[in-house]
Specification:
It is built from one helix and eleven strands. The chain is mostly beta strands and about 210 residues long. The strands form two sheets. The protein has a nine-stranded antiparallel sheet, with no helix packed on it. Strand 9 and strand 10 form a beta hairpin. The longest helix is centred in the first third of the chain and has 4 residues, at about 5. The model is unreliable at about 1-5 (pLDDT under 50). This is Bacterial surface antigen (D15) domain-containing protein. It is found in: Membrane. One of its GO terms (cellular component) is outer membrane. Its main location: membrane.
């Protein structure tokens, strides 16, 4: 692959399509329901430009109430990005880098630190998978505590896929909805496979599910 600096300025023209079904009873601190979403991004090809790829992301989330204040949350997400003309002609910056929080978050690991390593550098994966389990305790309608398990990895190709060789993180945290500020939170994650085990703090603005 070529980095941005090696290739020089590139013209990118893309379009994204997505579908989403959300049956949660509320957008924050939900007690039940599910989310199913799929997006596809097409760059180049008939849209012209210098960057040609197709990127897919899928996510499924289920929330189950347990007793009065406990909520069990299961999330699975995965994705693939490939070149339109050559499978490996995907720009470095369009690949999947896992770690920290966000859509490609893997708690217990630093931002963009998880993926295929080449010569000591994370070159980003062309496919990834993340599984998350959270057990939440609702303190009120605007705040909850949580304990979590994150499992995932990113791979260079289907040939490199090793579904049982993954990075694992566990930890605790909280989410709070505050007037004028929105949703904020804090997680303390322990990366089980992060250099033999390491605690990593994460600050959250907003929430995914």
């Amino acid at each position: 692959f070529k980095s941005w600096s090696e290739a020089g300025p590139l013209l990118s023209s893309s379009i994204t399509f997505g579908i989403k079904r959300d049956t949660r009873d509320r957008s924050f601190n939900a007690t039940k329901g599910s989310i199913t979403s799929y997006t596809i991004e097409l760059s180049g090809g008939p849209l012209m430009g210098d960057v040609h790829f197709h990127k897919h992301n899928f996510q499924r989330v289920n929330l189950f109430p347990f007793k009065k204040k406990f909520i069990s949350v299961f999330s699975m997400k995965g994705g693939y990005v490939g070149g339109l003309y050559k499978p490996d002609s995907v720009p470095f910056y369009e690949r999947f880098f896992l770690g920290d929080i966000g859509y490609y978050g893997l708690r217990g690991y630093e931002l963009r630190s998880v993926g295929p390593i080449e010569n000591g550098v994370n070159i980003g994966g062309r496919l990834y998978f993340i599984f998350t389990f959270e057990e939440r305790y609702r303190i009120s309608e605007t705040m909850y505590l949580l304990a979590f398990l994150d499992v995932g990895n990113a791979w260079q190709s289907y040939h490199d896929l090793r579904p049982f060789i993954v990075k694992k993180g566990v930890g605790i945290g909280f989410r709070m909805e505050m007037p004028m500020l929105g949703i904020i939170g804090f997680d303390l994650g322990y990366g089980i496979d992060n250099n033999g085990g390491k605690w990593v703090p994460h600050i959250q603005f907003g929430t995914q599910f």
